[in-house]
Amino acid sequence: MVFYFAQVLGGVGYDRLSEEKAKNAQKGMYGQGSLRTSQCPGECTRRCSKTQYHKPCMFFCQKCFRKCLCVPPGFYGNKHVCSCYNNWKTKRGGPKCP
């Protein structure tokens, strides 16, 4: 039903993939410890693929991945599904993880 609704609106905000990721997030598939170390390169490449600052994004994403074993879904935002990733801050209080 949500997919049909998205087609009516021209796909604004919803699609089948977004709906699947939302369901996985609700099931805890994106929380801390939800991924294995071997998944790090692929998940960080996906997360950083749309930024103009690819190298620093990859560096910090991999650093955060090693600590949290999770990467939020999407290219930005959605940090609430991985609390460790969201709560790790710089000395100045800014977000450490992309």
Descriptive overview:
This is Gibberellin-regulated protein. It comes from Rhynchospora pubera. Belongs to the GASA family. The chain has 98 residues and is mainly α. Helices cover 48% and strands 0% of the residues. It contains five helices and no strands. Helix 3 (40-48) crosses helix 4 (54-68). The longest helix is centred in the middle third of the chain and has 15 residues, at 54-68. It is globular and about 30 Å long. The termini are far apart. Residues 1-27 have low confidence and may be disordered.
Summarize the structure.
The chain is mainly α. 48% of the residues lie in helices and 0% in strands. The chain has helices at residues 2-8, 16-26, 40-48, 54-68, 83-87.
Beta-strand percent range: under 5%
How much helical structure, as a percent, in the residues? 40-55%
Provide the structure class: mainly alpha
How many extended strands? 0
Number of helices: 5
The unreliable regions are: 1-27
Q: What is the molecular shape?
A: globular
Give the N-to-C terminal Cα separation: 33 Å
Family: Belongs to the GASA family.
Protein name: Gibberellin-regulated protein
Pfam families: GASA
